[in-house]
């Protein structure tokens, strides 16, 4: 399957999402979003969609700020329960996230797969829960170092894609965001080369065309994540199948994150 042409790429609005992970309490969250709101211009918002994926305890504060000041910054959660309600201590449900007007929810981040034993089946149930409640899942997939060393990154990542999207109909999958995050590049400073990112992101798009249609595949945004910074974002974004970034550490610095949003100026 051929990679997307540049014309197709321009039809996809880039999505820069900051994954705060377990950082910034609700007061720090307010200060941080205010800094972003102050820095980002109409021109930025027209060119790039900007989102923050925040700890559950920050959501209400961020919602109040975004609603009150009519900000164009989108927000969401880092996880969702596969259940709607009930005796699931510690979990947060889709209806709760929808009530807080979340746009996005990350599903299957490698840290959840690794520390919370989330399988592709669980991720699939969470993708369903997101769609059931009107949230857009950002399905995170990507290989570890052992898989990369064995040269198996493409089949490994595509198997995670298949598992996460199993039986998800096209009218839902057309809005999914896929985040390709090679585990060996997360928080390590070890960024994948733009060619590494393109190899797997291109394969993801080709697989989406096989699973659904070329039209759907051309529409889906595929992000790269793993040690993205202002200094490397432009080269990664220049790849034909990379439509945005999922940013960890660098998203905790508002100025740096704004530079990432303005990747075309870097
Ligand atoms: O896991 C990530 C985003 O979800 C990437 O984290 P870093 O940008 O800190 O490497």
UniProtKB/TrEMBL annotation:
Cross-referenced Gene3D superfamilies: Aldolase class I (3.20.20.70)
Keyword Cytoplasm: yes
Active site: 109 (electrophile), 181 (proton acceptor)
GO molecular function, one term: triose-phosphate isomerase activity
Family annotation (InterPro entries): Aldolase_TIM, TIM_sf, TrioseP_Isoase_bac/euk, Triosephosphate_isomerase, Triosephosphate_isomerase_AS
Chief location of this protein within or outside the cell: cytoplasm
Keywords, ordered alphabetically: Cytoplasm, Gluconeogenesis, Glycolysis, Isomerase
Catalytic activity: D-glyceraldehyde 3-phosphate = dihydroxyacetone phosphate
EC number: 5.3.1.1
Residue numbers binding substrate: 19-21, 187, 227, 248-249
Pathways involved: Carbohydrate degradation; glycolysis; D-glyceraldehyde 3-phosphate from glycerone phosphate: step 1/1; Carbohydrate biosynthesis; gluconeogenesis
Enzyme class: isomerase
Recorded superkingdom: Bacteria
Record-stated family: Belongs to the triosephosphate isomerase family.
Function: Involved in the gluconeogenesis. Catalyzes stereospecifically the conversion of dihydroxyacetone phosphate (DHAP) to D-glyceraldehyde-3-phosphate (G3P).
Quaternary structure and partners: Homodimer.
Matches recorded under PANTHER family: TRIOSEPHOSPHATE ISOMERASE
Protein name: Triosephosphate isomerase
The species this protein was found in: Streptomyces niveus (Streptomyces spheroides)
